[in-house]
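Appendix B, record 7
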Amino acid sequence: QVQLVESGGGLVQAGGSLRLSCTADGMFFSISAMAWYRQAPGKQRELVASITSGGSTNYADSVEGRFTISRDNAKRTVYLQMNSLKPEDTAVYYCNSRLLGVDSWGQGTQVTVSS
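Structure tokens (predicted):
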């Protein structure tokens, strides 16, 4: 499995911005699909955004137009730029890597949006 290390979470007021980063080890980052998931207390983990190895992106309806996922293959890093944050975006955000059907997960980073 791939080791993934997330950073960038924190506490922000509604309307603010945060950028999450996730750095992967190993040599297969550039051919891996990457994604960000989140899990709020008492809720199931949900897909927030994904990006293929070719750079195609997909977003949950709830974040479309506010969040942007991107990747830097040279740095083996995927980013999630989060703008216009809302209290309902509060959750633990997890980085995901998928290669040949095998999923790897980061440890998660807490994002808290105050109203």
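Remarks on this record: The chain has a mean pLDDT of 96. The longest strand covers residues 91-99.
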